[in-house]
Amino acid sequence: MCEQYQSRAFGTKMPGAFCFLAGWVMLLASCARQDEPIHLQGEAQGTYYSITYFDPEGRDLQPQVDSLLQAFDQTASLWVEESLLRRVNSNKTDTVSPLFADLLQKSAAIRRHTDGSFDCRVGRIVQAWGFSFKQREELSTATLDSLMLYSHAAVWLDTLDDGTILLRKELPETELDFNAIAQGYSVDLLAGMMEQYGIENYLIDVGGEVRGRGGKPDGEPWTVGIEKPAADKYGGREIETAIALKNASVVTSGSYRKYYEKEGTRYSHTIDPATGRPVTHSLLSVSVVSSEAWYADAMATAFMVMGLEKALKFIADLPEDTDIQGAAFIYDSAGTNKTYYTPGFREKIKQ
Questions:
Q1: Tens-binned pLDDT, residue by residue, of the chain (351 aa)
Q2: Could you give the number of structural domains in the chain?
Q3: Does residue 200 contact residue 40 with C-beta atoms inside 8 Å?
Q4: Nearest residue to 325 (alpha-carbon basis) of 190, 180, 211
Q5: Is 105 inside any structural domain?
Q6: Bridge partners of residue 341, in order along the sequence
Q7: Read out DSSP for 207-244?
Q8: How far from the centroid of its chain's Cα atoms is residue 304's Cα?
Q9: What span, in angstroms and rounded, lies between the C-alpha atoms of 257 and 285?
Q10: In sequence order, which residues have a C-beta less than 8 Å from that of residue 140 and are 6 or more positions away?
Q11: Range of the domain at 132
């Protein structure tokens, strides 16, 4: 994302805190019993996590999971006051970790990939609209114009001879927000940890962002449900459809849970980086299936910014080797929810 993140002498690897803005994917997995499943649950990033895995050694990895998620919060959370992200944004430090740099580089790549529909430099704007850790402001046109200037200023990385990574800003007022990528990224970190322990069958769910490998002992893949958009933030949770998930991730971004209303108008938490304003189109939620959760996370947000027509054209124009295995769009049509599934997504639907 962040255009002009010119990485110097730092390798690029190619998924807001965090993307609590993402929609909800509900876990439906029920494990057939040949081996005993291990279930872990807890809280992280202001939401829940739930992990199911099969380990022939029967190891309880709860301490390792909690330690990893806590360390990640210390790097990328806007809700942890002394996190590295908060200190970078307030210009208390310009030295960043390799993990922070990787988040930034992935964000820069998705910004270029989506022609600016995804941009992590919108931190000040998201805060001003009240969708972060600060109270909503009354935004005049002049104020928004100033915030847009900060959100389009260049940010880049420099690596010193001793390996120290420095983040540079064209304007010190620019603030980063990894909400639309960090939660998916944390899911991938957990998946990598599981595989380091030799665990080949697992399902990881952090706040509805899901990644699964392998499946159940009977050979069945994991089953994950996609939530039906509710009429408002207080509505109950219902399942729109369910898909088989094997060696893939699925992330949903939606506009129907996080918003505020003023004078009869609903303002979505999804901010268009091109305008600095909440999106106003009819798209209610997007679910993206990809091999890695960080990418599915970022692309679901980008599609919510684009809207249905532009997102479908974007997908149609993608090269064959692009890592989008399928996408589901739920949108409002004259007061009625309608769905569009790409062929790849339709193939994964459980009958």
A1: 444 443 333 222 233 333 333 334 444 444 434 478 999 999 988 789 999 999 999 999 999 999 999 999 999 999 899 999 999 999 999 999 999 999 999 999 999 999 999 999 999 999 888 776 666 667 788 888 889 999 999 999 999 999 999 999 999 999 999 999 999 999 999 999 999 999 999 999 999 899 999 998 888 999 999 988 765 555 557 788 999 999 999 999 986 555 555 555 556 678 999 999 888 888 899 999 999 999 999 999 999 999 999 999 999 999 877 889 999 999 988 888 899 999 999 999 987
A2: 1
A3: no
A4: 211
A5: yes
A6: 328
A7: TTEEEEES--TTSPPEEEEEEEPPSSTTPPPEEEEEEE
A8: 12
A9: 10
A10: none
A11: 1-246
Start-to-end Cα distance in the chain: 37
Residue 28 covered by a domain: yes
Q: HSE, CB side, 13 Å, CA atoms: give it for residue 109.
A: 17
Specify the amino acid at residue 236.
G
Q: Are 56 and 215 in contact (CB under 8 A)?
A: no
d(CA 274, CA 264): 25
- Residue 72: inside a domain, yes or no? yes
CATH assignment at residue 177? 3.10.520.10
257 domain-assigned: no
